[in-house]
Design brief:
Layout lengths: L1 H18 L9 H13 L4 H7 L4 H13 L3 E6 L2 E9 L1 H24 L3 H18 L3 H14 L10 H4 L2
Antiparallel strand pairs: 1-2
Helix pairs in contact: 2-4, 3-4
Length: about 170
Amino acid sequence: MATELMKAMTRLRARLRIESAPIGRSWTWSQLTTLTRIIEHGASSITDLAQAEHMRRQSMTETIAAMEEGGLVRSERDPGDGRKRLIVATADGERLARQIPEARLAWLTAVFDEVLDVDEVDTILRAVRIISRIADIEGATCVRALDAVRRRGVPGREIANTDVDNKK
């Protein structure tokens, strides 16, 4: 069941990316998540963006260069340290970042309205509440779930001790 859920969620995420892809240019997932981070957190250095996105600085430099070339971001002098450059979103970048969720919502709404029947939509709504509850599991419940997986064992998959383990 867990494997099927993960596969379905992965397929849906991929489909949403396809359905919301901007016409005329194919932006990578990394570029779009970086753009969103810049918009949500404000002007940032390439080093800070690389760290936040778990990338090497060189890879982030390439990501930003493509985004600058495409008009999504620009660099400005850091007002606190004129030697540094900060990356900020342009109006085109902000517009693109708004369009993607809107396109995803429009596609999902059309599917719900045109493809699914009332019972299927109701089932999805119930599943969304359950999946959201699973996503919000924290603390002791999460530790108990990890312990159960370790006891049961998952073939081909070792679960490493994490910071969660240290909070027991």
